[in-house]
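Moderator note: this is an archived Q&A kept for reference. The question asked for a predicted structure of one protein chain; the sequence and the answer are reproduced below.
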Amino acid sequence: MKIIITAATKNEWMQASKQIAALSKVNKPKHQIIFHQSGVGMLSTAVSLMKVIASEKPNFIIQVGIAGTFNSSQSLAKVFVIKQESIGDLGVTEKGTWKDIFNLQLQKNNTPPFVKKLLPNQWLKQYNLLKLPAVVAVTVNEITTQKKRKEQIIQHYNPILESMEGAALHYVCRTMDIPFLQLRATSNYVGERNKTKWLLKESIEILNETLVQLIKKL
């Protein structure tokens, strides 16, 4: 099986790539693994994924990355799989109310690749081999920092995690009918901009450890 492991930045999979390379020297690898840097944000990720899919024709894509969590009672540096995505900032705020493209009737609820306004992962049960907790996520181009905007997103999408690339993965892979999995490690709480309170190092370490364990299971 040809597998693409993708992230916005190389730092999010670099540790795992070294471990997987070392394992390949000891045992003959079962899969061909390609590491891919998509760039930050939905636009860069979508275009970059389409290019690598066209050139490599993968059987499976794993996106890894850090994420902010809306759950302030949950400890950080935890790894989740994403069961469904939404695009959280494609629309307009009118009179204090957020309206996305579905509310504005610019997009029908079930026009592919959407299902009931969402971008679910229909391959999750098959590929969540580590039985990681599956949560709802939202993807944004502008990281959420304002309290009012945070409340709008929670009210509208009820997500647990926020990233800047996840929906692009779901959109592209559902459109191209390619199995995929999105792994996210929580590095911070949404709205917290004091990075001394973030667990970047710890979240990347646990993310890469989890990725290696997943590859061993495949």
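Archived answer notes: The two ends are 9 Å apart (CA to CA).
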